[in-house]
Structures are given as C-alpha cells and as structure tokens.
C-alpha cells in the first residue's frame, strides 16, 4: 500500500504547521508524506487546515476521495466557526481538544507525568496567590473575578493582564513554573468555559506543586491526576466567598496541605488512561485514521 499524502494548507498561527507540536513530518514519515508545496494539493489524500488561520472556506476545489481535516486546539467560544454547522460541513475529520473528535488532542504530554510527582517547594511569597494572563477580554469574566479577588487578598499578577509584578528573567514556561511554585495558590483561569477545553494552565499549577484555583471547563474533574488537587471557582457564589476560603486555607496549613497529599499517592488510572493516546504524536494518529478509512472504502 502506498503512503498517504497529506497537504498542510495553512500555517499554525504565525509559524509553519510543520513546527506545531506533534505535526513535524518526520514523526510519521513511515506512514504519510507531508507537503506544503501547492503543486501537491490536488493529489493529496488529505488536506489539513488549522482553523484559527482559516477565515473562510478556500475556493480550491476538493477532488473526489480527498478528505479535509479541521484542526484546532482553541476554544469554540473564541472561534465560533468551529461549531458552525454550515461551515464545518466542508470538513470530513476533526482534530481538536474534544474527547469525541476523530483525533482528540490534549494539552498534557506523557513526558510530564514524573513532573506531577515532584514534591512541593517551600511557599515564601508574601502574597498567597499568583496569576499569569495576557488577555483582558476573556469571555468568561475571569478579569472581573480576578479584580474581585484582589479586593480580598493580595495577588501577584505577572502577565500583561492586571499586571502588578515584573519578572526578573523570562524563560517562558521554565520561569512560570519556578515563580508559581513559591505561592500557595495559582489562579489557573482559562480564557473561556467550554467542555473539554483544559489548557496547560491547570497542569502547570499541579506540576509546580501549588494549588490551582480553576475557572474553565465544567468537566475539569475528568482531567485531574489526583483527588482534591484543585479548588474550583465555580463552587463559590462570588469573589468574596472564594477569597474568604483561600484566606482560611492560608491560616490553616493542615487543611491547605490536604490539597497536596495527592502528590504522595498513585496517579488516578482514569488520568493515565486519558493521556495514553498522547504517547503517539497527533500526526501519526491522523495517518492511522486515514489508513483506517482507506481500508474501509
């Protein structure tokens, strides 16, 4: 059987799709041939589109038997075309964060499993909570929640949004993990509340050994590696109630430590089962799916 041919039609934001994690052509060169040369478009078995880079359906035609693949790790709330039936009917396969997609993808990678069990570091920051965000206009009112919390407890905010602290150095994720590891709480607030949309935020907090205060996916429990490892903002009626609870944990360190005991226990099997798929790069999983469809035809 000849190798499948995949054409990458769009870039990945401002980079080549080849550079996106899990989509380097070398990861599946034994299964599929990947091209970005427009001369290969017509002959491609599948055309892959990164939806955030696609503002409208391109007028390129679609030969019989060719499959179009819609890929995105962005929330449907921020990119509503992703749930527009008239728009999405042009695509045959979906690769995204949804667990029921044709090729589901996660923001957590199996290589980070040992990091989850790293013991927590000493919490010496005077402010109990830390926040990193760059967008003031998230559609789930996280800005307003942070603003409300700041009226009840001190929060060090290092990102562009609601900034009140500066980083002395910035090695991106490495710096972020080191910084938040020294705080009692990390405000892991997504940019939208959408089922299955669980970004790296909550996992960064869990790896760093702080207690994430989470705002986002209503089914976040399905993605957690341990029991009682986060505090859900949705469990509280308003910022005042949440702030009062965080301050009570700051004073009662025994109760606070209960949120970190999961690091001494085996990770939940449901979590390990969930991330098992990520051991195979996304591109390889797409190739397997295409091969399966070819065989069934």
Outline the structure in words.
With 297 residues, the chain is of the alpha/beta class. It has two domains: 4-105 and 278-296, Rossmann fold (3-Layer(aba) Sandwich); 118-266, Rossmann fold, CATH 3.40.50. The protein contains nine helices and eleven strands. It has helices spanning 85-88, 113-116, 142-149, 173-180, 200-208, 239-251, 253-257, 269-275, 282-296, and strands at 4-8, 32-35, 46-50, 67-72, 93-96, 103-104, 129-131, 155-157, 185-189, 211-215, 231-232. It has a six-stranded parallel sheet with strand order 2-1-3-4-5-6. β4 (67-72), α1 (85-88) and β5 (93-96) form a beta-alpha-beta unit. It is elongated, with a radius of gyration of 21 Å. The protein starts with a strand and ends with a helix. 33% of the residues are buried.
Question: Main attributes?
Answer:
297 residues; alpha/beta; Rossmann fold; 5-stranded parallel beta sheet; 25% helix; elongated
């Amino acid at each position: 059987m000849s190798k499948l041919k995949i054409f990458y039609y769009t870039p990945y934001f401002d980079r080549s799709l080849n550079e996106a994690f899990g989509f380097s052509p070398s990861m599946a060169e034994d299964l599929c041939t990947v091209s970005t040369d427009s001369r290969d478009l017509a002959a491609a078995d599948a055309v892959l589109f990164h939806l955030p880079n696609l503002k409208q359906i391109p007028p390129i035609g679609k030969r019989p038997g060719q499959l179009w693949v819609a890929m995105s790790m962005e929330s449907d709330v921020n990119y509503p075309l992703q749930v527009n039936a008239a728009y999405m009917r042009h695509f045959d396969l979906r690769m995204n964060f949804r667990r029921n997609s044709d090729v589901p993808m996660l923001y957590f990678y199996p290589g980070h499993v040992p990091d989850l069990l790293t013991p927590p570091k000493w919490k010496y920051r005077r402010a109990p909570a830390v926040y990193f965000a760059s967008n003031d206009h998230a559609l789930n009112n996280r800005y307003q929640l942070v603003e409300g919390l700041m009226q009840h407890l001190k929060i060090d905010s290092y990102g562009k949004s609601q900034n009140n602290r500066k980083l002395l150095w910035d090695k991106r994720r490495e710096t972020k993990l080191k910084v938040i590891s020294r705080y009692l709480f990390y405000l892991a607030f997504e940019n939208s509340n959408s089922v299955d949309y669980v970004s790296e935020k909550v996992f960064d907090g869990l790896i760093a050994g702080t207690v994430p205060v989470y705002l986002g996916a209503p089914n976040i429990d399905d993605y957690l590696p341990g029991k009682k490892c986060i505090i859900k903002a949705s469990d509280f009626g308003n910022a005042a109630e949440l702030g009062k609870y965080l301050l009570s944990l700051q004073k009662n360190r025994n109760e606070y430590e209960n949120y970190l005991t999961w690091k001494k226990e085996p990770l939940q099997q449901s979590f390990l089962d969930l991330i098992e798929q990520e051991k195979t790069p996304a591109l390889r999983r797409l190739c397997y799916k295409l091969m399966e469809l070819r065989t069934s035809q």
